[in-house]
Amino acid sequence: MSSRLAQTVIDVLSFSRQGDNPMDYFERFSEREWQRGLSWLDWGGVSLYFWRQVRQMGLQSALPPGIRARFEHRQAQNLGRTSAMVPEWKKIQDLFSSSGVRCVVLKGLAMIPDYCPDPSLRVQFDHDCLIDRDSLGRVEELLRSAGYHRKKLRERDRVVYAPDVPASCGFSDSSSLFSAAIQRPVELHLELWDAGEEKVRLQLPEDLMARSTTRTWGGIAFAALSEEDALLFEALHTFRHVVHNWCRLSVLFEIAHFLDRRRSDGPFWRQFCARIEDDFRLRRIADVVFALAASLFRVSFPCPDIPSTYFGLTPELYLWVNRYGRKSALGNFSTNKFSLFLLREFVEDQASWREVRRRRLFPVQIPHRLRTADEKRASAKLVASCRQGFRIIRRFWFHMRGALLYAWEYPRWRVLIRREGETRVSALRTEAPHREAGRTSLSTAKSSL
Question: 397: pLDDT confidence band, cut at 50, 70 and 90?
Fold first, then answer.
């Protein structure tokens, strides 16, 4: 993927314009570069966001005709996918409601319009909702009766149920991501954060379900988190994906969309700050995510009434965002393991850090598969198994390469951290004489009275 093309795409998606007209750059890229870039856009989840912005800016003519046709095809595919997902989710929701199970939608339709102007622009792979842990047994019975089976996961904060369809990876190229045939699991969140798995303890609000609100879209009513709690979930969800080395660029774009849309909403930001003020780690996680999204897509810091120091972005975290965060985001955080430098700032216990670092560097979990419902032949299953095998090999290579890059970069990161600490100490020493002079003059003034 051309770095020039990636930067041009970011410029088009940004919420404040700077520099030359993107059309001047579009015409410099060949159709082959656009084909490679389209795959990058697809995997980053921003293809349709980019295509929408290109049309709004009137830049379609600067793209090769074949590339324009591919964008249009993806738009049509995803529209059909969204149209299939809405009644599918309504059926699941009605199943829960009829049995007295309370569930709160976390993503999907709950993100319209603050995070996404239209659901057909999002590439959504599952149905996310929050339920009470006590309801899990009843939910399992309901989903099994509806043709779902439980997937094996190590995490305690969520449970995933997948439709009973033939096993198949179903990906011929990145355009398959928009296919309506790909299975759509139901992901049930029991908590917003798994402290035991992540080794970062957070003090989260306990009244999330009680503060939920009813929302409607397309004639469908559903329960959703309050606006403040929804943003808290998005921040935690993004942070978790970053430190797990797979966070699509679209996730940060959607947060930037929210920051731009609500940047002057003082009452909202004061209520959000009140929800997280008791936990400094939570404030720092939120600020890392906001800073990363804002710097990538050029969004000003929301609500000038709230001081930026409230969130507690340390010099180390600021250094990580600027040195590793933005560049890693362009590769969906899947090209290196530098997110471990970020995670280290939140894990205090040394033994816990050694455990989580080992798991992140050398995980043993087999990658999940997205399945399609349109392949039942033995030959199709064989092809699917081969694709899954190649995917496992690619993941193994990523982990080996990522571990080596981490080991190579680690000494440099420690030097940068040490220099940052020395700079702060020097600044404090410079300020000390002025503070002492101020105290002396104040004492002199008091004694003369």
Answer: confident
Alpha-carbon span 167 to 176, nearest angstrom: 16
Specify burial of residue 112 (Cβ count, 10 A radius: 0-12, 13-18, 19+): middle
Q: What is the pLDDT of residues 64-76, one digit of tens each?
A: 999 999 999 999 9
> Is residue 292 a contact partner of residue 325, using CB atoms and an 8 Å limit?
yes
The CATH code of domain 82-225 reads 3.30.460.40
Return the amino acid letter for 340: L
Q: How far apart are the first and last CA of the chain?
A: 72
Bridge-based pairing state of the strands 186-189 and 127-131: parallel
- Confidence (pTM): 0.88
In sequence order, what DSSP letters do the residues of 345-365 get, joined into one string? TT---HHHHHHHHHHHHS--P
Q: Measured between alpha carbons, how far is 46 from 9 in angstroms, rounded to an integer? A: 9
Contacts of 92 (CB under 8 A, 6+ apart): 127, 143, 146, 186
Position 434 scores a pLDDT of 46
Domain limits, the chain: 1-63, 82-225
